[in-house]
Design brief:
The chain has 225 residues and is of the alpha/beta class. Helices cover 52% and strands 13% of the residues. Strands 2-1-3-4-5-6 form a 6-stranded parallel β-sheet, sandwiched between helices. It is elongated and about 65 Å long.
Length: 225
């Protein structure tokens, strides 16, 4: 008997808010070796309840859903049921989807163009303690590790947080809100919140004052020469 034949089927719950997509994934998984589908949920709240009831090995988790999205559901599942792993299966591969999901505890991340074999590999990879990531997601993680990060001082002025100081340094470097969001892997709305907070703390009224403030506090230095 081969190792594949000896391996117990992975017990899986599928979570997706679109009925047609959810039923299609369940049907696909039912045809794949090494997978046993225990149930399916239409949103994060239902997913958390199903995990508590069925104790699956793995949840295949969509991200953008009503009531409770996939990131919050992943966070709750990993906190309340650490024996259940989460593999994200989503349409989206942007940074604002990827990194919050991994930070919430997902061990795998696939896009919905993944084939059946890739899904099976990801499911069994996370059960073996490895990451179940598609090649494109692995490349994005490596790219992020190679990206320069703005340096924050050991003690930020005027009670600024480390993230607010990072945003201030990037403003001084001439980056737009959208560019700052991409650099820090957060939404533009989050960048605006950080800017409002740091402006209030530092008594800054506009971006020109922010640049002068950053130079005056030694957070950035003029170019040499």
């Amino acid at each position: 008997m081969t190792q594949e034949a000896e391996r117990k089927p992975a017990r899986v719950v599928v979570v997706d808010d679109q009925t047609v997509v959810r039923e299609g994934i369940v049907m696909l998984l039912g045809l794949l070796p090494g997978i046993e589908v225990l149930g399916a949920a239409g949103d994060g709240e239902e997913a958390v309840r199903l995990v508590a009831e069925l104790a699956p090995d793995v949840v295949l988790m969509d991200l953008r859903m009503p009531r409770c999205d996939g990131v919050e559901a992943t966070r709750r599942i990993r906190a309340q049921h650490p024996g259940t792993q989460v593999v994200v299966l989503t349409t989206y591969a942007d940074d604002e989807s990827l990194f919050p999901a991994l930070a919430a505890g997902a061990r795998g991340y696939l896009t919905k163009d993944a084939g059946g074999d890739e899904i099976v590999r990801a499911v069994h990879s996370v059960l073996s303690g490895e990451a179940g990531l598609s090649p494109s997601i692995q490349r994005r993680l490596l790219e992020r590790l190679a990206e320069p990060r703005p340096a924050a001082p050991a003690e930020a002025p005027d009670g600024l947080t480390v993230r607010e100081t990072e945003v201030l340094v990037l403003i001084a470097d001439g980056l737009s809100n959208q560019e700052i969001g991409r650099r820090l892997h957060v939404s533009t709305a989050t960048v605006k919140t950080h800017i409002n907070n740091l402006f209030t703390k530092a008594g800054i009224k506009d971006r020109a004052q922010a640049v002068r403030y950053a130079y005056g506090k030694g957070l950035v230095r003029p170019p040499a020469g």
